# Entry
Amino acid sequence: MTTSTAPSTPSLPPTPPITDGEPPVAPPGRRRASASQRGERRAGLAMAAPAAILLLLFLVVPVLLAFGLSVTNARLISPNPPRFVGLDNFVRAFAADPVFVRSLINTFLFAVVVVPVQAGLGLFLAVLVNQKIRGVTAFRVIFFIPVVTSIVVVSILWRFMYREDGLVNSFIDTITFGAWQGTAWLENPSTALGAIIVLSIWQAVGFHMLIWLSGLQTIPEELYEAARMDGASPWQLFANVTWPGLRSTMVFVLVTITIAALGLFVQIDVMTQGGPVNSTTTLVYHAVRKGYREQETGYGAAISLIFFVLVLIIALVQRYLTRDKD
# Structure
């Protein structure tokens, strides 16, 4: 005798009742997850808030104030209220201010010389101090000492060295056996900017040497060993292993040197005050002189905005030319 049983149907979970006008209630686990995400978001905003406030106060607000002042004839101390003048300050800079044009030329000339020389010399020193030899740490410290020394102190010392009876001319007189007596480097319009270029390269090359050095130490040693096994020469090692591995470091070094070179101010202010005959005046120094010392705040703000736009354009072009083309 056989018995037949009916197939059992799977039991379904009870469906929560749907009431009109009330949204469905989220499960407790999902509510806890969304509350946790909101807490993390608030914590992230709280940690980013100090940096955002500082950027707002010291970058965004000054740029907006400079833009507002640049279209007025505001003076630092004046009984008369500022008056809107439109683009007159910008037209004056390029058409009626020969010192501005000279400062623009000096700034670009300084950057054109300093950027490649300082970057190349820093890379050369980094390759030298990257060797595994005894006493190499001492050379790293020696090359880096000018960087941690105040640029004001360095400028004062070099100003004395560049005098007609200073150390530079004494050294030249010694090595030439009196055949060339030298000159007052900072008082000669043809040598003043060159003298400041030499000082600036010497003072900052140690910093970029360390940047290059950090990039060199990220290149795997296995790449060098494989290249040596293939019979690569030292130059081929540099061209095919070292230089490709330094691409990102190169971009950083070039951008930082360019921005620092275009912003040249302290050396000029301490050593030459823009002279002789405006041969060392730069954009930043001219803006400070007009905005504070001659109290033409509106015109100084216009020069500062021109400088800001030029630096931004040069940095973007430089970044485009050195981009990764893969």
